[in-house]
Amino acid sequence: MGFATDCIHAGQEPEAVTGAVTVPIFQTSTYVQPRLGEHKGFEYARTQNPTRAALEGNLAVLERGRQAYCFASGMSAIDTVFRLLKSGDHVIAAENMYGGSYRLFSRVLEKFGLQFTYVDTSSTAAVAAAVRPATRVLFLETPTNPMMTLTDIPACVAIARAHGILVVVDNTFCSPYLQRPIELGADIVVHSTTKFLNGHSDSVGGAVITATDELGEQIQFLQNAVGAILSPFDSWLVLRGTKTLALRMQCHNANGMAMATYLTNHPKVKKVYYPGLPDHPQHALAKKQMNGFGSMISFELGSKENAALFLNRVRLCSLAESLGGVETLISHPETMTHASVPIETRKRLGITPGLVRISVGIEDVEDLIADLENAFDAI
């Protein structure tokens, strides 16, 4: 089936009793068993829930994986993946990634004996040089948050395969509409379903999609054992969101390119980070690896004072954490999403006091540009 068709139908059959087209919210904690030792496929809601199962089936198809499992947040999804490892195992991770991932790795998982090396994963040489005998996972985020640096997934997969390393890709910025890492060789894909998959800024959740049934069974065991599951209502909200994912992403793409072009030509913008621009250093890779360039853009205003003047002046755009909603969200990475990253690291990566990140929504782009033009007048 085509991607838009899968968005609407994959994992979702009409409800058996009533024929309801929309998967119901099965708001229950347990299920009656007809007799001892027999059940109808559902025993306890932490372990299985029909609404969550429908979403998991949907996401597995959209990411072209074998199995999918949904969690209470994107961070709980990532945390569950790393429970596949044991003390002493080594991880290679992208040096520029979501600040919450770095916080989990550096301040939580390292306490349990996992070792992390942070490298510029846009350099395959740097990835190869970081491999150790104890390396078990290569964790990628592409494009990176917020510097929009790309990693060549197939090239990194080739390095990992030679050493028996699992490749895990955070695909939140792209959604499976723009990029499908499993098709490019990755073993596991993670998402914050809060973002583009849900698309309406009214649910927090996460997902893990596996390329093999063996990995899927391990994640399923951990999902049940640890219990950080996505609720039935949130599962229903994300299912509602994925139905329109293809349509929303088409508009996000178009608006993203229009906004990036506008920002590139604005005299008060020092630099724009967007893979759809011809001068982006990995523009060719973006065209090869992605099905469009998305709506995530970062741009440099030169100072924190300029950033504050600008961000305090926006009205249609919402100054807020998060991304991927139908509304345009704008943020200041240094003090918001990446505040947990050490100052020295932020400086080295280019996460400056003057950097602004925008998640372009699906409003009329002319209205968004007018709002930014008014904000630029404050500088």
Keywords:
15% strand; 379 residues; Aspartate Aminotransferase, domain 1; 5-stranded mixed β-sheet; alpha/beta; 37% helix; Aspartate Aminotransferase, domain 2
Structure in words:
By secondary structure, this protein is an alpha/beta fold. It folds into 2 domains: 3-243, Type I PLP-dependent aspartate aminotransferase-like (Major domain) (Aspartate Aminotransferase, domain 2); 245-376, Alpha-Beta Complex (Aspartate Aminotransferase, domain 1). It contains 14 helices and 12 strands. It has helices at residues 3-9, 50-62, 74-82, 99-107, 124-129, 153-163, 175-178, 213-226, 232-243, 245-264, 283-289, 304-311, 343-349, 365-376; strands at 67-71, 90-94, 115-119, 135-141, 166-170, 188-192, 206-210, 271-273, 296-300, 318-319, 329-331, 355-359. Strands 1-7-6-5-4-2-3 form a 7-stranded mixed beta sheet, with helices on both faces. It has a 5-stranded mixed beta sheet with strand order 8-9-12-11-10. The mean pLDDT is 97.
Give, in order, the helices and strands. Answer: HHEHEHEHEHEHEEHHHEHEHEEHEH
- What is the beta-strand fraction? 5-15%
Number of strands: 12
Major sheet attributes: 7 strands, mixed
Number of helical segments with 4 or more residues:
14
Task: Tell me the span between the first and last alpha carbons.
Answer: 50 Å
CATH topology of the largest domain: Aspartate Aminotransferase, domain 2
Give me the Rg, rounded: 21 Å
CATH secondary-structure class of the largest domain: Alpha Beta
Which CATH-level-2 architecture of the largest domain?
Answer: 3-Layer(aba) Sandwich
Structural class label: alpha/beta
Query: Main sheet: which strands, in order across?
Result: 1-7-6-5-4-2-3
- Gross morphology is globular
- Mean model confidence by pLDDT: 97
Q: How many domains comprise the coordinates? A: 2
Task: Give the name of the CATH superfamily of the largest domain.
Answer: Type I PLP-dependent aspartate aminotransferase-like (Major domain)
Helical content, roughly? 25-40%
